[in-house]
Amino acid sequence: MIQKGKAWKFGANIDTDLLAPISALTSAKPEDAYTECLKDVDPTFAPNCKEGDIFVADENLGIGSSREWAPQYLRSCGIRVILAKSFARIFYRNCFNLAVPALVCAETHKIATDDQLEVDMENGVVRNLTKGETYKCDTVPAHLMQIVADGGLMPHLKKKFKKAS
Amino acid sequence: MGQTISEKILARASGKETVKPGDIVTCNVDLAMVHDSSGPRTSGKKLDELGVPVWDMDKLVVIADHYVNLDTPESKNVQDICDAWCEAHKVKHFIRNQGICHIVLPQEGHIRPGMFCVGADSHSTTAGAFGAFMVGVGATEITGVMATGDIWVRVPENVRMEVTGALKPGVVAKDVILKICGDHGIMGFGYQVVEFCGDGVAAMSAQDRMTLTNMAAEIGAKTGIIAPDAKTTELLKAWGVRGVNADDWQSDADAVYAKRITVDGDTLSPQVAAPSSPENADDVDNYRNVKLDQAYLGACTGAKLEDLRMAAEVLKGKKVAAGTRFLVAPSTIKMRELAAAEGTMKILEDAGAIILPSGCGGCIGLGDARLAEDAVGISSTNRNFVGRAGPKSSKLYLASPYTVAASAVAGQIADPRDML
Ligand code: SF4
After folding, report:
1. What is the tens place of the pLDDT at every residue in A120-146?
2. B141/A94 touch (CB, cutoff 8 Å), yes or no
């Protein structure tokens, strides 16, 4: 799977309270409140993020609570791939379950907002088309890529139950 | 080669003789827990979408705790959805507004040593205090568990975290775990399981140990675990669990650990974590003069019966400082009742505490304990990220129940050892 898109660059320790603020979760329609995603860090992100953009962060992305709204909001904003130096484990699993691959990449500090990226998930390569650089990223275990290929854990489960019946 | 308690549990749950770190195994789940936020309104809805029943109704526990304040139409709506879903699905173990899930779950007899459990909440690690292996997952993932009864797990490395020596009066589990946060950072033990042990842990009460495993989530760990002993068995017995087997769920002497770390209990001072991360922890001395608008004793981390007692020990015969609000949300109704029966609640109230409903409330910025704009608070909770307990302009310090109570009296951050 190859994903091409524009980078949105964030720092370290972006936590789930920043990604999915409690004000969004307690609103009448939390699914529509993704516009509050990262409002306390960069209020321009949610309104300007486009379908297919790539989220890039430093260490410890997604620390905090298990709220799936965190990766869901990134997805709703348009993000289709996430790169970070490291992930909190529940957030990492949540990303794949929502069909947004989360890839560990040690060189995200070389990426800036607006860089055009091309992420090759099978081969573990990130090409920075703007800067003409290539970075390595971890490849994803096959069972997780299968979940992504099926469109997330829900469609994956539907397929499984359909086969069984 | 020996196995750790975690490896023994994962081997049993995945039907294997042994497992080793890095193995990806499919485990049968002994118990799944969801709450009003992660349950019916999210994973419950998804399960209905799949059109399959809960795999085993005996093994699902639904606990309404996050939206107990009912202070907004949205909160009421979440609770209504929870009630309706549990009724429609004839949920056998639905515990409604009795307190915070991580405390209610063992208190109502659902946890025993050796279990493999998952919970749709990051502090599900708390159950590790009873020798169970419990991890937090997200809403879609728990939907998968509710449908199939199993989940994939990458077997984690083990970290042996030994608390040596004896904690001094006024120094408790919360100080130990904040010290570990400060020394190792919020991702210090990413993907690993932290096994707390040593004389310092053995000397702690079984209830206080829950604070260690609760905040394993704040050091990046997959979970925290503590080998069960006589104190564990006794507390579980008091909570109605019969026939506890502690002996089978101990780490072997020759078990393999990726890291061995010690915390010196003898020299440990009360710890305070400055805004806006638990890893900003340091000795209380460094924060003494911070003025406070609010002190909050609450959450799954710091409002159990023993936490309330710690606060009462400090507050007996004293008054909360003018200009500081002291709010107490006992973690469960049962614990509030026990504290009331023995006079602990009266001591808190006489000192000027305002008692709030038993639920998550102030920990996530809901209800009356939500911090105001620019307010500065201290709290017995586990997280102080920007925007968690109030608006972006508010500031939150984390500390033990002792330190929170002492600070409420002083109106500024204070060392409880001066008041005991
Ligand atoms: S009290 Fe706070 S940390 Fe504990 S379950 Fe509730 S929201 Fe989570």
Report:
1. 998 999 999 999 999 999 988 888 999
2. yes
